Structures are given as structure tokens and as C-alpha cells.
Amino acid sequence: MHELLIATRNPGKLREFAAIFQGLDLRLRTLDELGIPDEVEETGETFAANATLKAEAYMALSGLPTLADDSGLEVAALNGAPGVYSARYGGVKGEAQLRYLLEQLKDVPWHARLARFVCVIALARPGHSTELVEGVLPGVIELEPRGSGGFGYDPLFYLLDEDCTMAELPPERKNQISHRALAARAAREVLARWQAEDHPPPAV
């Protein structure tokens, strides 16, 4: 069985990856399980740069193939902000952050409030180039928060095809269509290819 380090301390995120990677010959390891206390600073200017930084740094620390992701919200009317600063946008957290985003968009009409959630996953393994996959979920920023599920910007992120916000979606549906789920399914294809390369079929 192959080992893969999931570079997160978020148990919810780990469960999402475990569900999508089910059926692969993989043992998922965590930073805490391996006793890695280091926190890699996200100094990149793009999601891809931050995901790559984390994947390669934790691969070097662990010696294992490593998956790391970076994700956030991009709002067209704000020139792509908050982007890589999504978690610390406005210097506030929780509901205060939602209010801050709404304040930035107070004069922007509904049709111009287009946004997207982006998740980039980096997959690093010793002796190989790091590979990147991406998941994108388009939506619109609501005029006020709706729903009690999810986290972060979910109560403001309206999905046209679902006619609700991310915070109003059942968790199982969110895990099917979210930007992270889309990226994770693409990552699964990379991992399956790695395993096929390690165990090529016998020559005939």
C-alpha cells in the first residue's frame, strides 16, 4: 500500500479526500500523525504557488508523496479579490468578514456580482515534478447571507443551478459539486496514474 501525506490539520478536509480517494491503494497520513509541527508560510501570489509551496515543503519534511491545496473566493467586480487572502480578507473573521465583503460590493448590482470559488491541489513526490489540478465553481455574491451550513463565504455564495447558497446546500450535495471536490476528483486521476506507473501490467 502506498502512503500519501495530506498536508492539512483540518479533519473535515481529510474526510473529504478519504471519501474521494476510496478504492485507491493508498494509506493517507496526516501532519500530526507524522509529528510534523512545522507550518509552511503561504507567501505565494496565486493559489497554485501556495499549494506548490506547501506540497513540496511537506514532502521534503516527510519523505512521502504529498498533497496540499490552496483555495479561496475570487470576485470579478473586485478584480479577483479576496483571492489568496480569502481567509484573512479585511483583517476580520466570521460574520464580520461577510459584512466586510458586502460593504465592498454595496454599489454593485446583482448582474455584476459574479464570483467563483477556486481550489488548486498540488501533488508532489520525490524525484518528480509537482503536478497541479484545479476545481472551479462559479456563482454570484448574494445581497445578504443565507443559510446556516458550510463555513467561510458559503452564506453569500449563490449557485444559479441549485437556486440556493452554498450554506443552504445539503452537505452531501456540497461534497459533490464544490471546488474542492472537483479538484480532488482530478487529483484522484493523477494518483491512479502514479500507481499504474509503479505497477505496469506484465508484458505479453
Features:
globular; single chain; 204 residues; 7 strands; seven-stranded mixed sheet; Maf protein; alpha/beta
The CATH class is identified as: Alpha Beta
| Overall body shape | globular
Question: From the 3D coordinates, which CATH architecture would you assign?
Answer: Alpha-Beta Complex
Poorly predicted segments? none
Number of separate structural domains: 1
| Order of secondary-structure elements | EHEHEHEEEEHH
Q: Quaternary status of these chains?
A: single chain
Strand content: 15-25%
Give the end-to-end Cα distance, rounded to a whole number of Å: 25 Å
Radius of gyration: 18 Å
Predict the CATH topology: Maf protein
Q: In terms of structural class, how would the helical and strand content be classed?
A: alpha/beta
Counted beta strands: 7
Order of strands, widest sheet? 2-1-3-4-5-6-7
Major sheet details: 7 strands, mixed
Note the total helix count.
5
